[in-house]
Fold this protein.
Amino acid sequence: MNGQAFTVHAPGRVNLIGDHTDYAGGLALPCAIDLGISISGTHEQGRVELSSDALADTVTFDLDPAVNIALIEPQWGRYVAAVAVEVNAAQGFTASATSTLPTGAGLSSSAALEIAVALSFGFSGSPMELALLGQRAELRAVGVPCGLLDQLSIVFGRAENAMVIDFADNAIEYVAFPNDLDIVILHSGQERQLADSEYAERRASCELAVKQIGPLAQASLTDVATLEGDLQRRARHVATECERVRNAATALRNNDPITVGDLMTQSHASLRDDFNVSTSVLDELVERLNTLSGVYGARLTGAGFGGCVVALCERGAINEPAALTGRGWIVRPSDGARQRAI
Ligand code: GLA
């Protein structure tokens, strides 16, 4: 309704373990976090005006299903316009966004923006439709053929729970996150670079591997050994990562943080050596974290190529994460995205 005020919120997510598995039909163990993007404003017929405290310049455009998204400036407006097309929006809004989520850090700021914008348009479909819409908007906006990890975590997050997602059928199982553990995130200071083209290349390799040996989540190391060169290493990462996710979920349920932490550190080594998406800065951070008392394990989180590392810690082990690299956070598993008419 024209003039109707609204406020929406979409959290970011941190992936505890299981990266570069979603688009290969594998498994991951993420949670939504208490850093995110909120948008407040009023509905308005036919146009969008959105400003942000985290991103430069105001996005303004008239709603038009035939809009040329590549021409929208500032660039972050392309996410907004892509969502408008996906929602088939007739009603727009004048609004402002506030964000506590760092951009380009592997904590899903673009997916959070897409989901928050979809809710701002008054999206009223099911949560699964909302997640799928966000994924299509990402492809439409910037051409990144992402999986569903970010969108499912953001939409289906639950306070004090991590979630095991099986991307074979997008089934979600919640796992209570122990009260006596902290999730610590440290920013490496490296904004993600080259991620888009390399991301698509990794995804294509995984798809090729699936064609040759079937679903990687079920592949044995003997199956993987029939592949050659880089393809073998990419597939080995996905196959072993899925097994690590299963084991980490069991260990979390059994309140065994030592095993979860070890699996996280093994995951980092696999992303570094087999999937080649780490950087020396991320590697050093993981090593450094693992020398600190009360840290069970650490790994890069998200697509890699820069961004953040995540560590599983005893509660209070690292009191001031920002003191370690300049930017850091202790986060708690949080509820998923929500909208509220006011
Ligand atoms: C990005 C993508 C996700 C996922 C991760 C890696 O965050 O958007 O779909 O592939 O990288 O796990």
User: Anything to note?
Assistant: The longest strand covers residues 27-45. Residues 179-329 form a domain with the Alpha-Beta Plaits fold (CATH 3.30.70.890). The chain is about 40% helix and 25% strand. The chain has two domains: 3-175, 179-329.
